[in-house]
Write a structure and sequence with these properties.
Blueprint (H helix, E strand, L loop, with lengths): L15 E8 L5 E9 L9 E4 L8 E2 L3 E7 L5 E8 L5 E2 L4 E4 L3 E11 L8 E7 L6 E6 L2 E6 L6 E7 L5 E2 L4 E2 L5 E8 L8 E4 L5 E3 L2
Parallel strand pairs: 4-10
Antiparallel strand pairs: 1-2, 3-5, 5-8, 6-7, 6-9, 9-10, 11-12, 12-15, 13-14, 13-16, 16-17, 17-18
């Protein structure tokens, strides 16, 4: 971690509220926080949010861990999270994990020992780890494949014998004696088990 110092002054008698974001070289937001106070003596109640290498509002097939901390941790009574349109809920610690598939609009805050709430920080997490459900059917020498659409959709690929994988765009007229292999890939890169069809047999066989 790198320590960052922010200095500000103002002649306004009104309270100040400054929001700031620190961005890494690959455009990942790794700290979002806020400072508030008056011009004479600024009090710091910053909430820091660290989502590691996960960029907000992008799809992933992995768990997302969000770590929270405060500029003055000794004043934190509890951290809280608001998930989508639900009510604010207390957290057991400053760590929060997204482990289930879905789209989550997350807001975080803490309540200090005086019952005051910090500025909120937010992040959108999108997770899809589902394995595409691939179906391959044979009608004579015609092969068709389909895959159930998940949260991020899917694409189907095929290859003949030991050749390269090709994008499947429609029914294939297969050649006798060849082995056709199919797989589906979700929008987050999760692959289905490969299915193989041997044209000299009347059944879809496991990949080999």
């Amino acid at each position: 971690y790198r320590r960052v110092t922010i200095k500000f002054t103002s002649t306004s008698p009104s309270p100040l509220h400054i929001r700031y974001t620190l961005v890494s070289g690959d455009n990942n937001v790794f700290v979002a926080a806020a400072l508030s106070g008056d011009a004479g003596s600024a009090s710091q109640n910053a909430l820091y949010m660290n989502a590691g290498d996960y960029p907000s509002d992008t799809w992933t097939n992995k768990d997302v861990k969000i770590s929270l901390s405060a500029a003055l941790p000794e004043e934190v009574e509890k951290y809280q999270v608001k998930v989508n349109d639900a009510e604010w809920a207390d957290l057991d610690s400053g760590d929060y994990r997204v482990t289930e598939d879905g789209v989550y609009n997350l807001q975080f805050r803490y309540v200090d020992t005086d019952g005051k709430e910090s500025p909120t920080q937010s992040i959108i997490v999108k997770r899809d780890s589902a394995i595409p459900d691939l179906t391959v059917e044979r009608d004579g020498d015609t092969l068709t494949a389909s895959a159930a659409e998940g949260l991020t959709g899917s694409k189907i690929y095929y290859r003949i014998d030991g050749g390269m994988w090709n994008l499947y765009t429609g029914a294939l007229e297969a050649s006798q004696g060849s082995i056709y292999r199919f797989k589906a890939v979700s929008g987050t890169g999760v692959e289905s088990p490969v299915q193989a069809v041997v044209l000299k047999a009347d059944e879809v066989q496991p990949a080999f």
